[in-house]
Amino acid sequence: GEGGRRMNILLLAHFVTDFDPHGTSRFVCLARRLGRAHRVELVTSDFDHRAKETRRERDFALPAKVTLLPEPGYPKNICLRRLFSHWLFARRVRAYLKGREKPIYCAVPSLSCAYYAARYAEKNRIPFVIDVQDLWPEAFSLAVPGAARFLLRPLVRRAEYIYKSADIIVGVSETYCRRAARGRSVPCLPVYLGTDLARFDRWASSPVRRDPEKFILAYGGTLGHSYDIPCVLEALALLKGRGISVTLWALGDGPLRGAFQARAEELGVEAVFYGRVPYPELCALLRACDVCVNPIVPGAAQSIINKH
Q: Are 187 and 168 in contact (CB under 8 A)?
């Protein structure tokens, strides 16, 4: 705050996946740090995007007020019900913002939520800061057939409006900041994703049973369109043809898990699909492997991703 003055700050984030007060969730961390010196409210959805279930109200153990706005939810990351769910949540955000004239620090995406926040901030001349977590619609354009990509144009226009409305741009990478600030002279601050190294090391020290004679690759993250798991499986098949045995541990879940498993069986390579595992177990498995891989599909919009 200016001169140490306590400020009223509204943090707006559609997706807050982990309310562990000692965790590494970006917006929980922001609420915890800002809440020590300012009056902070964190507004988010009551639908847990990761678990695909409704959150229950509870004591979030934060020095900030937490407001959960209702959202109907959706079964899959890419589906029409998700579009409707985002639209309805954004309408509730718009209604909730009325009369709350305080600086807004807003996550992008989702676009619907950030769009209404940008309009409200502009109309009421409220300082508006965006934190770009992902580039929509670029990030999921790979999942849309080329002939249908014209349907993404309204989302592109919405994203451009959000970017142009921002007084300050924060992003998880320099790439995202440059994209959001394109053609404008606006303060930009890349703040990279991070984790608590002491906790990681503590959990990574847990023993994992593995065959010491095997060479193991591990991938941790979404099993979806942006990550080229088939490329890894095909590389394993080439090595197998030369008499070199390599195993893949796939840690995570996603819409293409079944297709990736089928491809591994078709190629006759050894791949273990763990599904989503608790973070402490993930740390231990990553340390137990020989090499971690993160194969991004050509043309994907990712730069700095959460798994790092």
A: yes
